[in-house]
Design goal:
Elements (H helix, E strand, L loop, with lengths): L1 E4 L7 H12 L4 E3 L6 H11 L2 E3 L10 E4 L6 H9 L3 E4 L3 H15 L3 E5 L5 H7 L7 E3 L2 H4 L7 E6 L5 H12 L4 E4 L5 H13 L5 E5 L5 H13 L3 E4 L15 E6 L5 H12 L2
Parallel strand pairs: 1-12, 2-3, 2-4, 4-5, 6-7, 6-8, 8-9, 10-11, 10-12
Helix pairs in contact: 4-5, 8-9
Length: 274
């Protein structure tokens, strides 16, 4: 089986930075999973004793706590400070940006519209900085019929697709007196998505490697599926099914921003051997 890798894939700047921070701070806790890749989380716990704690209330005073790449809600951060925790901030700078925008614009009286998944930790963290009631929508359809203010600020989860953000922006512009639009989709996300869009039109089968709970990985998979019907999402080589590759000539591979090279290489080697 011939294999072709996407032009851009795998670890982004924010994830690389977070992994390096975790490895330098052995025996620490992370409030929630540091990144959305269970295999890499297992490696950090096994090799560096960096453990996940999902309940901020269960963290003991003066513990060393790493803030996940997706950030945490403002109240959780305040609670950690009250506990006297040693806070090590691994929040991606691209996530800090929408937090700051939401805090600033809501203080000026703007209604916040956030394009994203309401259940995603990044989104929960960002909207916690809003002093006005925020509106979170995952599609243009979800926005239609919602009550909108005269002054609106639009931001996006960092891993969303730019064309869909533009759809929402156009909708708001025709219905609100004032709309402030901030493109908070990170460059790495855009580059990875464009690379998948291009490669999935060339190949017979497409494999996306990454955590199943990773937003940016799922976005890559949805884009691949648009252009290549035989597209599959796997966490590592154990998820590969030889039947997917029968009668196929060329396989494309991409990976989410929180997928380490050692997992990607394992998938590539397995497919090349079919």
């Amino acid at each position: 089986m011939q294999v072709k890798m996407a032009k851009n894939y795998g670890f982004c700047f924010g994830v690389k930075r977070a992994i390096e921070i975790a490895q330098k701070n052995k025996d620490s806790l992370t409030l929630g999973s540091l990144i959305h890749n269970p295999k890499e989380i297992e490696r950090l716990e096994r090799d560096f004793n960096v453990r996940v704690q999902d309940d901020v209330g269960a963290i003991e005073s003066h513990s060393s706590v790493i803030i996940r790449t997706h950030g945490i809600p403002k109240n959780d951060l305040a609670l950690l400070k009250e506990k006297g925790a040693h806070i090590i901030d691994a929040t991606c700078p691209y996530v800090i940006k929408p937090q700051q925008i939401v805090e600033k614009m809501s203080a000026k009286g703007y209604q916040i519209v956030l394009f994203g998944d309401a259940n995603h930790p990044e989104v929960k963290g960002v909207i916690s900085y809003s002093s006005t009631p925020p509106l979170v929508v995952n599609s243009l359809e979800e926005l239609q019929g919602k009550k909108l203010g005269k002054k609106v600020t639009l931001v996006s989860q960092t891993t969303k697709q730019t064309p869909k953000l533009l759809e929402i922006a156009n909708f708001l512009i025709t219905r609100c007196a004032e709309v402030r639009i901030f493109n908070t989709i990170c460059n790495a996300t855009f580059d990875n998505q464009e690379a998948v869009r291009e490669l999935s039109q060339e190949v017979d089968v497409m494999i996306i490697v990454g955590g199943r709970t990773s937003s940016n990985t799922k976005q890559l998979f949805h884009i691949a599926k648009e252009f290549c019907t035989d597209s599959y999402l796997v966490e590592d080589f154990n998820d590969l099914d030889p039947a997917w590759f029968r009668g196929k000539r060329l396989c494309g591979i991409s990976a989410g921003a929180s997928t380490p090279d050692w997992i990607i290489e394992g998938v590539r080697e397995q497919i090349a051997g079919f």
